[in-house]
Design goal:
The complex is a heterodimer of chains A (247) and B (306). Helix content of chain A is 31%, strand content 37%. By secondary structure, chain A is an alpha+beta fold. Chain A has two domains: 24-207, Immunoglobulin-like (Sandwich), CATH 2.60.40.1930; 209-247, no CATH class. In chain A, strands 2-12-11-4-7 form a five-stranded mixed sheet. A four-stranded antiparallel sheet of chain A has the order 1-3-10-9, with helices on one face. In chain A, helix 5 crosses helix 6 (222-243). The longest helix of chain A is centred in the C-terminal third of the chain and has 22 residues, at 222-243. Chain A is flat and about 80 Å long. The mean pLDDT of chain A is 84. Chain B has 306 residues and is mainly alpha-helical. Chain B has one domain (2-291). In chain B, helix 5 (110-142) runs antiparallel to helix 10 (268-291) and helix 6 packs antiparallel against helix 7 (196-207). The longest helix of chain B is centred in the middle third of the chain and has 33 residues, at 110-142. The two termini of chain B are 36 Å apart. Classes of the chains: A alpha+beta (247), B mainly alpha (306). Chains A and B meet through strand 5, strand 6, helix 4, helix 5 and helix 6 of A and strand 1, helix 3, helix 8, helix 9 and strand 5 of B.
Amino acid sequence: MKLRAVLLSIAVLFLAMPGAAQTPLVADLSEHQIQITTGFVGTDVLLFGTVEPDSNVVVVVRGPEEETTVWRKGRYAGIWVNERRIVFERVPSFYAVRSSAPLGEVASAITRSRHGMGAEYLRLRSAGEDIAEQVLDDFKSALIRNKQREGLFATKGDKITFLGGQLFRTRLHFPANVPTGFYDVEVFMLQDGRVTHAQTTPLIVRKAGLGADIFFFAHNYSAIYGIIAVLLAAVAGVLAAFIFRKN
Amino acid sequence: MNIYLPIAEISVNVFLLLGMGGAVGFLSGLFGVGGGFLMTPLLIFIGVSPAVAVATEANQIVASSVSGVLAHWRRGNVDFRMGGVLLVGGTLGSMFGVWLFTYLRSLGQLDLVITLCYVVFLSTVGGLMFIESSRALFRRRRQGDVKRKLHQHHWMHGLPFKMRFRKSKLYISALLPILIGFIVGVLAAIMGVSGGFIMVPAMIYLLGMPTSVVVGTSLFQIIFVTATVTFLQASHNQTVDALLALILLTGGVIGAQIGTRAGTRLRGEQLRILLALMVLAVCGKLFFDLVVTPDDLYAIGKAAVH
């Protein structure tokens, strides 16, 4: 496989010159662009790199931030109705975290909240006025729970595995409903619970092919798109009547 | 084989969509109904957001009503004058409906209103159809048809702006068809249905139109109402998935042909009882989902608030 060859060449490079590593942390992705084509069902991206010996590695993947509304349902006359909402500002549309050992052992709580290591450590702020702490916490955990259910806050996946003492790799999964935009893949090298080095690698998720063209057209030329959609349907209808005409 | 729908933004098996289009098309051919009231809930069940389901279904109905109206037009069963008057109301109704749709979406209550509309209309129509067809089946066993007057005269014949509709053999106020068209336009916009299940009975029982021209005329006006809805939804809300609509109508066209042929070999009342039971089943499922306590009381709003 191509990825194996890449890994192998890096491994060889580092084995050949053991003391020559100038940068303590080097990481890269097997791909920097995910294309959502018509046949897209989700994809895996391999993250690999090297760190100094006796270090831990944490990887945080964040999708583009967006305003997200969380609704709570209440029962009215026996029917469940959206009752209360809280709008969270700047919620990552996608979030995943990977670590070489359980996060609680690798990093202190302060480090985790500073770098957003773990969904519960994300800084989720509401635009709202004064909301009771308890209510806000309930909505926050509901937001994380719902995102996890949609597969957009990755809960499980490959751990970061070491090959030898310095070379690491992990597989990042992006589901079919992955949001488009610019992603940040942050790789942290930790020693004794503190971040000693960090590197950010960009990743672009974009629509490609026919689907992308349709989406672009629908959003940028929406009136013309509407007319074309109607005409297409009308032509299809005429065609159907013509083909199946009973003589 | 999965296909990524560009506007719905989900990945769905293309054969599932073709099968759904075929099955609903078969039923619509069999029973002579639009099928929108079955397809929209089905799309929602497979994970398409209600907003996209409703708007895309309107797009698909354009195709099915075009092919339907051509058959009726050849037989001269379209009252274009009546269709035009209905259309005036329909256009106004669909504009109001799309506005209402956008407003409800911003409130976060769109999904609820769509589901509630479905529950109310499906239970009413399904219930009435069930009673009417089981009665007809019962009556047929005992005696022959009862001769009915062409149409009854009500208070509504005193309304102003009277117009003559030659093909329908009517001289009535234009306000009534405009009102019926308006209601159907609103329903098309917020429910993604052709509204045939409301309009056909309304044309027969309220307007007193002859049954022969009712279906062709209602299809004629539905083309333009759903076209308006499609255009407005696409330009205001960007919720029309043309790719999804094309896949559904491919399956639908084939299914409808098979259904029409199968329909000629079966008896009317039994078919209508079957349809009524199906409508009530869909309605029951939607109602159950509204009433049963959800697994998670919290949910993420689909639409961004602007």
